[in-house]
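Researcher: Batch entry, complex prediction.
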Amino acid sequence: MPSQSHSPTGGQQRRPASQQGMRRQNLALVLGAVAAHAPLSRADVAARTGLTRAAVSTLVVTLHEAGLVSELGPAPSGRVGRPGNALVLSNEGPAGLGLEVGVEHLAGCVVDLSGEVRLQRRTASPNRGRPADQVLADLGALAAELLAEAEALKLRPAGAVLAVPGLVDAAAGTVVHAANLGWRELHLPPELLGLPLSVENEANLGALAELWREGGEAEGPAPVDFVHVSAEAGIGAALVVGGRLFRGARGFAGELGHVPVHPEGPLCPCGAHGCLEQYAGERAVLAAAGLPEASGDWVALLAKRAAEGSAPVREALRQAGVALGTALAGAVNLVDPEAVVLGGAYAELGEWLLPAMRAELAARVTVRPWEAGALSASGLGRAGALLGAALVTVRRIIENPSGAYGVG
Amino acid sequence: MPSQSHSPTGGQQRRPASQQGMRRQNLALVLGAVAAHAPLSRADVAARTGLTRAAVSTLVVTLHEAGLVSELGPAPSGRVGRPGNALVLSNEGPAGLGLEVGVEHLAGCVVDLSGEVRLQRRTASPNRGRPADQVLADLGALAAELLAEAEALKLRPAGAVLAVPGLVDAAAGTVVHAANLGWRELHLPPELLGLPLSVENEANLGALAELWREGGEAEGPAPVDFVHVSAEAGIGAALVVGGRLFRGARGFAGELGHVPVHPEGPLCPCGAHGCLEQYAGERAVLAAAGLPEASGDWVALLAKRAAEGSAPVREALRQAGVALGTALAGAVNLVDPEAVVLGGAYAELGEWLLPAMRAELAARVTVRPWEAGALSASGLGRAGALLGAALVTVRRIIENPSGAYGVG
DNA sequence: ACTATTCGTCATCGCGATGAACAAATTAGT
DNA sequence: ACTAATTTGTTCATCGCGATGACGAATAGT
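Model: Structure tokens for the complex:
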């Protein structure tokens, strides 16, 4: 289960603090500082973390032996004094493998510790209704190729995470229901080619990719409390709270698609009336736009038609935006996020969806301060899920370096 | 600010782990075990926490010197072996002072470390529109009386928390807006009679009281992930996530009252259309019931008329329940709580509100498992806020014993 | 060359948990 | 009643790990 167990039920079952725990925590602290702030000397790390230079030194020895950090050698800083020895995350050794199964494709990628995508691979594959074991076999072959190439780069993935468009029980490692693939109650093996394998919802992984994106760009610091909306199979929202994915008590948080928008609206397959999906879901938008359903890459098609100036398509998207905005207004009133990010496939339709969403949010979020800029489209778009899947393993190593292998 | 700072913005600004931090954590671990599981011998604590008996011994010495735990003396256990020396939370020394200002009353109470209410006081006081400093002066007098009585019981409150019906910025210690009192942008002094003073929303405190209620009764274990709905001034929902109050990025989470229920519904004073308050708020319910507004204790009045069998009142409450259920269905779909608790004044109307709410939730929460029993009325009712206010200080001491005084 | 800095490492110290040993207090068995 | 077996709580030696302070190394400024 990536990132966070869903309710550790641990009322007060905390572990006692031992000196080994202390060391573990400080290893993570040092590695986290190196991961977050590019090249850093030991002294920089000490200043930033509050640890002593001496302590940082011994911690770095451990991290270096584990192959997690490497030195670039002394770099003239321009200032007086002995120059520091720059530390960076190792671009060899531990890595993360992300896998993705979509309706029409399989994909995988390998990222190194610094989050850089080092390998990527994508193959067309009509998976709709195909037996799951065949799909998984193809996916295994793709993963094997990636692992071979990774070995040539001296990268050694420590875990694999699979992104699935559908409802997933991450803790149990099962796909509860993926309508577009025709999967239901599918238990995935705990290992793939010797790597521990986790499953996760595409929407959640897209949110994590957004959370962990390189903050270096001019986009400002990545928010740690946000709602990430994405539509792939149904409409899902991932809640990120304090930099952690929030799964809810039973792991089913984020079902934005079934938030009631018009309580007396049309019947939804879920059994309720007027769910958001009835206004902003695939079928609803295609119907409103006058397009046939199940038409291949419907998102790309909509984007193309809208760009061409099709009035019905634009109106359909505007109405979807209104519904999304209404549902999100409720969500914002409830959880008060720092930002709302439109991700996944819908990010590509942002140009047509965002104005109506912004208007709706501005009109309905009135009790607290709310700026239009707090709603934006993800720059990652559909690539987010795969990237997020690969990053899960890497982040897990960085946040708990002694957990991987026998570092401690 | 009680309980949890609202977004520590701490991307990776964690403190380094020192051996003093280790001690602090283990003190909290031991004290937490004693607080949670009644009388416990040192050996029991060791077994339960995973610490060594030796370690527990020295930790208990520190806690005893700080006046946080006391010994009951050896108690025959019936089993073979030397009997353990039972440890309990001290019923003297550190305590918590809770204060409450309502539209028609002032109240205060003192709880000891074990959460027991030792002193309670309530005075009628028409506070609507009265100058805030006069109200606070009266409240100070009430607090002074309680502190004098507390001293006779050898209880020494370590902090005071004030429950206010309205929007509060707990971190800044200000009441942003309390419509029913006529307060706006009121900065409260940081101290009251020498005690550090915090302010908090009534709804949030009611939720915390629910969270911290004695689990011993047959009501089963208190949930750690739940939504606590209460209506006092407006309709508020407090989200408790993993046993902590969730405040949102800016501290405004839980505005259930302005979640859109019927997007094209009547205009709300907040500027939006069809907010929940337009269907389940004080004015809406009274109007639907055919009663004059601003009629003293309107909740009690509604409960009385409903119990007498008044059809219009019952129908008004049923419709409010439908609206509440619709809004809550959205909330449940989003955050997947373990339970939903109806608290505050509305708890007294539970008999008339719950059936419609349950029906609505059952119909609209379909993707995940949902049982009707997950929605219930709080047993604390309106007393929750005051109790929660007093418990905040006590819980803070228990969760961080070295923070209070110079324990460490 | 000399001084002022800054960086990284080493020896020493203190704190706090661990583990083993031991006295005290009880029950079970004869 | 006396012994054996347990369980509790404390004491003592030990270990791990960060803090502290000192020292060599490497740079800039004069």
